[in-house]
Each structure stands twice: as C-alpha cells, then as structure tokens.
Amino acid sequence: MSGMLPDGSPSSVWPVLHYDDTRAALHFLVGVLGFEQAVAVPDEHGEIGHAELRWPGGGALVFGSTRHTDSVHGRMRAGSSAVYVVSDNVGAVHQRVVDAGGVVLEAPHETRFGSGAAAYVCTVQDLEGNLWTFGTYRGLSPE
C-alpha cells in the first residue's frame, strides 16, 4: 500500500475526517468504499484514535475520533465533510455501497463540473453523514 500518486510522486494532500464510531467508519471506508488500511492505532478507549488509509489510484486520507478534542482538529464534527475521489470504477464503488445497504445520493451518471469538463460520477453518504463523490474527472491539464 502506498500513499503515492499514479505517477509515483507522494500524495501531498491528506483530508482529515473525524467520526463518532471509528470502527464502523474503518469498516465502511475499507470494506465498502475500497480504501486500503495503512495504519489504525487504538486509543485509550479501545476505539481508533488515528487511521491512515490509501486510495488504490493514489492519495491518502486520515481519520480519527471526535472524542479527541485536545488539538485544533478536535473542533471538527462528524458528518460535516465532503470528499471527491478519482476512480475509473465508479460503477463498482456504487454497487458495493448498494450491496452493503448504504446510502446512495446520486447513482452513477454523466455530469459536467464547474470547469466544463465531463465526468461519470456517483455520490454516496457514509454512516455519519459525510459525502463521498467518486468520479472519472482528474482535473484540468495544466496548459
């Protein structure tokens, strides 16, 4: 498992989310959405205090517990984030969420983003309300 981008460079942007139920979050993010677990460190309560996940196509995500309020990240609320993930397998992610009885907010469909670029996307909601959009849009190429 690597935090590397497809071109071999390290991922330099790591979204941070917080969950009330970190074990359920880990199961959903890895078992349903398809992230790979790199690190999951328990805290003094037996929950996950710090986790690092990798996306198979490149990129990384950190999450922890809302119980931990002793840092600047302690101000974060569960369920108040939205994450976009590049995927060539939007339909497969959608199907895993459906099979798990998850919440699909937008089934896979063609759309255009604000940049005008076309993409195939779907949006799902995790167990605590965060929005996850999976799509084929990889950003505009630099000119």
Outline the fold blueprint:
Elements lengths: L15 E4 L2 H12 L2 E7 L5 E7 L5 E6 L16 E5 L3 H10 L3 E10 L5 E8 L5 E5 L8
Parallel strand pairs: 1-4, 5-8
Antiparallel strand pairs: 2-3, 3-4, 6-7, 7-8
Descriptive notes:
It is built from two helices and eight strands, in the order E-H-E-E-E-E-H-E-E-E. The chain has helices at 22-33, 90-99; strands at 16-19, 36-42, 48-54, 60-65, 82-86, 103-112, 118-125, 131-135. Strand 2 and strand 3 form a beta hairpin. It has one domain (16-135): Roll (2,3-Dihydroxybiphenyl 1,2-Dioxygenase, domain 1). Helices cover 15% and strands 36% of the residues. The longest helix has 12 residues, at 22-33. It is globular. 23% of the residues are buried. It starts with 15 loop residues before the first strand and ends in an 8-residue tail after the last strand. The strands form two sheets. The protein has a four-stranded mixed β-sheet. The mean pLDDT is 86. It has 143 residues and is α/β, with parallel strands linked by helices.
Strand content: 35-45%
Largest sheet geometry: 4 strands, mixed
Average predicted local confidence, pLDDT: 86
For the terminal residues, how far apart are their CA atoms? 32 Å
| CATH fold-level label | 2,3-Dihydroxybiphenyl 1,2-Dioxygenase, domain 1
Task: Let me know the number of strands.
Answer: 8
Query: Could you name the ranges where pLDDT drops below 50 across 5 or more consecutive residues?
Result: none
How are the strands ordered across the major sheet? Answer: 1-4-3-2
Radius of gyration: 15 Å
